[in-house]
Amino acid sequence: MSTRFTGKVILITGATSGMGRATAERLAAEGAKVVLAARGKEAGDEVVAGIRDAGGEATFVRADVTVESEAAEVVRQAVSRYGRLDGAFNNVGAATAMGELTGIDAGAWQAELALNLTSVFYGLKHQIPALRASGSGGAIVNNASVAGASGQPGMAAYSAAKHGVIGLTRSAALETATAGIRVNALVTGGVDTPLTRSNLGPSPEESLRAAAAMHPVGRIAQPEEVAALAAFLLSDEASFITGAALAIDGGMTAR
């Protein structure tokens, strides 16, 4: 494993399972000091323990990043503990307001936007000044979705939020380019995470086959595959990539 993140401090939200956890473990293995943020302390402590047992460095901050003060506190603690911030992976998100848009009530709509879009806004708002203060540029990756690149029937609120993430990413990239800060988005297809499996319903194997069939490659991704792309975008190897929405979707958006 490379050491391309040695000396770098990376913040990850939604870090206790799935893509967030895989990315935290990948970055720590490559030398990063990782700051993990999520709502569940027990799960966070478990991930930190695993990283430390493997020889890496990690710390956990319990936070609900849909609340601005808590999103800001994660950044503050990262800088307080490690002296700087070099990157972030804004990974929190889930589809919660399902069904036809005419049946979505205002509370469910606002909660969907808070989880999938406002959390990214709060992250960027407080991460960017910390990256500027560190003085060596840096990178931010926001987790969008194929739902941010196309319409999704029955998922109007989620699709609207993820479209927003891509627009927010591009605007932030333009505002920070001269500071050497890069901001990109992942356009993820189906990923085999605990959250995905918890939403499969009474016939999980049938649901997995149906999800796989939606992808031209005939399967959904593993979290480690998404982590590999996130790590690349956070690394200096991606130094000329900013404002991009990169598909990691098994060909879904190519259709």
Short overview:
The protein is an alpha/beta fold and 255 residues long. The protein has eight helices and seven strands; from the N terminus they run βαβαβαβαβαβαααβ. It is 46% helix and 15% strand.
Please give a structural write-up.
The chain is α/β, with parallel strands linked by helices and 255 residues long. The protein is built from eight helices and seven strands. It has helices spanning 18-29, 41-53, 68-82, 106-134, 156-176, 194-198, 204-213, 223-234, and strands at residues 9-13, 33-38, 57-62, 87-90, 138-143, 181-188, 245-248. A seven-stranded parallel β-sheet has the order 3-2-1-4-5-6-7, sandwiched between helices. α1 packs across α8, α3 (68-82) runs parallel beside α4 (106-134) and α4 runs parallel beside α5 (156-176). The longest helix is centred in the middle third of the chain and has 29 residues, at 106-134. It is globular and about 45 Å long. The termini are far apart.
